Amino acid sequence: MKPSSKRRAFALTGYPLGHTMSPPLHQRLFEMAGREGEYQVLEIPPEELSSRVEELLALDGFNVTIPHKLGIIPYLDELSDSARRYGAVNTVKCGEKSIGYNTDVDGFVRALAEAGVELKNKRVLVLGAGGAGRMMAIESCLGGCDVVVAIRMSSVPRAEALAADIRALRPDAKIRICLMDEILPLIGEEGGFDLLCNATPVGMYPKTDAMPAQEEVIKACGCVFDAIYNPGRTRLLEVAQRHGIPTVGGMSMLVWQAVAAHEIWDGDRYDPGDIQKLTEEMSQLVSLQFGGGK
Ligand code: NAP
Asked: From ligand 1's centre to the CA of 63, what distance in Å?
């Protein structure tokens, strides 16, 4: 049931949720826009989604994470172009109609844009072909980039399906798949990449010593983006910085995708300088929550 007061109700749904940054992040965005908004966590196991979807649709809006990004789609009235393109929904605006959006892509593109990186006609290396890697590869190909998706053996069928989907969207797309250990030989033959994007969980807390690519690969890239936001500064980013390579962290993407949700829910706009400060605030919070975070 919607609350009768002016205070509106929002939530994150997924399963399991454990530690999530979404409540403090969205609460801060409501405060920054001078709005009253309650943001709760609704952990819903997959087998309960159909019986509890009314609870979600009665809210003013909600965010969706694993495993419901696809499962929520049949319950929505409409999908935005980006949700249709990526086949995944992470933000829903409720009301007379429920509309599903994908703001992960906004987060990715805007985090890079704030760092001065435009996804146009670049050589891009994407590590991983899961939900985030898929989105990064599609977006880069649509921007005319020459894209290599590097995967481990178990991801080959998934990556081949991704390449086929991209070619269906853009027949002249420059998309190739290679195994992780084929990256260095490829660099030897063709030179480095303008941008490396990590879309694997390698390096995420608690296994923060791990790195998804060898140092020789990192050195051959003009900019490094890591989707991981815990820790804020992964070993991948540390190594890139040590070589003087510009870096962008996953917290920036997380914050910008949340900003895009508020633009959809309320039409609010935020100053990029304030969002930069919020990104730093959230990075500090993540290291406090997980201790030992960098
Ligand atoms: P996902 O769908 O599970 O995909 C993960 C990908 O990484 C798969 O291709 C997987 O391969 C691969 N992978 C996993 N472990 C690996 C390893 N040890 N070596 C090589 N490849 C490995 O996950 P996702 O949703 O795309 O998320 C990926 C990362 O992005 C996570 O760290 C997540 O936290 C982060 N993320 C950040 C944001 C943000 O806003 N900053 C948003 C979304 C995701 P297999 O298919 O073979 O298992």
From this structure: 19
Residues 125, 216: Cα–Cα separation, whole Å: 14
CB distance 101 to ligand 1 below 6 Å: no
pLDDT digits (tens, 9 = 90+) for 242-283: 999 999 999 999 999 999 999 999 999 999 999 999 999 999
Ligand 1 nearest atom to the CA of residue 134, by list position: 26
Question: Could you tell me the pTM of the whole model?
Answer: 0.94
Burial (Cβ within 10 Å: 0-12, 13-18, ≥19) of residue 238: middle
Ligand 1 pocket member 89 (CB < 6 A)? no
Is residue 225 in contact with ligand 1, taking CB distance under 6 Å?
no
- Tell how far the Cα of 37 is from the centroid of ligand 1, in angstroms: 31
How deeply is 291 buried, as exposed, middle or buried, from its count of CB atoms within 10 A (0-12, 13-18, 19+)? Answer: exposed
Per the structure block, which two tokens stand in for 121?
Answer: 């006609």
Q: How does residue 292 score in pLDDT terms, banded at 50, 70 and 90?
A: very low
Beta strands 224-226 and 247-248 are: parallel
